[in-house]
Amino acid sequence: DIQMTQSPSAMSASVGDSVTITCRASQGISNYLAWFQQKPGKVPKRLIYAASNLESGVPSRFIGSGSGTEFTLTISSLQPEDFATYYCLQHDAYPWTFGQGTKVEIK
Amino acid sequence: QVHLVESGGGVVQPGRSLRLSCAASGFTFSNHAMHWVRQAPGKGLEWMAVISYDGINTYYADSVKGRFTISRDNSKNTLYLQMNGLKPEDTAVYYCARGQTYNGNYLRCFQHWGQGTLVTASS
Predict the structure, then answer these.
(1) For residues A52 and A64, what is the distance between their CA atoms, to the nearest angstrom?
(2) Please, what is the average pLDDT of chain A?
(3) Is the per-residue pLDDT at B105 higher than 90?
């Protein structure tokens, strides 16, 4: 099975900061990776698909990159509505696997 | 628009069974694989199972293999998850999500989720 190691598990940041979240796959997954945002009590929302493609309607401050085994989600200039938990998902091979999540909190 | 509505959750004693349903509308259900994802209270997302567009192929997470069965009825636009031998650690919100198309297009995979249904396995 492919393991997804997501880091950090949590971070504190201020409005206007740039933050980067990393997901590492235990084996190459090409670009079969998506990023999700989840707010408390809400359904996960897909932000990025195919590693670097921005979902329609998602602000351009969300930037996905990477291929193979290392992927990053960068949020440039954090906004108040960006404080949430973020997950990566590999869909290269079954069983699909999510990263453990990164909670972005207000400093 | 795409609409997914889960139902069937509730409180059940460990060892018992429960069947979840996910009613789909707003798209051609029979063209898409469908997935179940769960989230235990205060925990992260866990991918559970997938069924192909035609119901022929299924895959499961190791944690539920042999206990849970995913199925679908394309005539009713409905996805199911039969959960047997429930354990306390199966307590979670269960989401259905639209997956890839019949021809392997992943571009809209997991773009749409249901609101979730809570399953509590407790005595």
Answers:
(1) 4
(2) 97
(3) no
Question: For residue A99, which residues of chain B lie inside 8 Å, CB to CB?
Answer: 44
Interchain contact A44–B (C-beta under 8 A)? yes
Q: What is the pLDDT of residues B41-92, one digit of tens each?
A: 999 999 999 999 999 999 999 999 999 999 999 999 999 999 999 999 999 9
Cβ of B5 under 8 Å from any chain A Cβ?
Answer: no
Would strands A85-90 and A97-98 be described as parallel, antiparallel, or unpaired? antiparallel
Nearest CA in chain A to B51: A94
What gap in Å lies between CA B70 and CA A84, rounded to an integer? 30
Cα B93 from Cα B34, distance rounded (Å): 17
Q: Is residue B8 within 8 angstroms of chain A, CB to CB? A: no
CB A38 within 8 A of CB A28: no
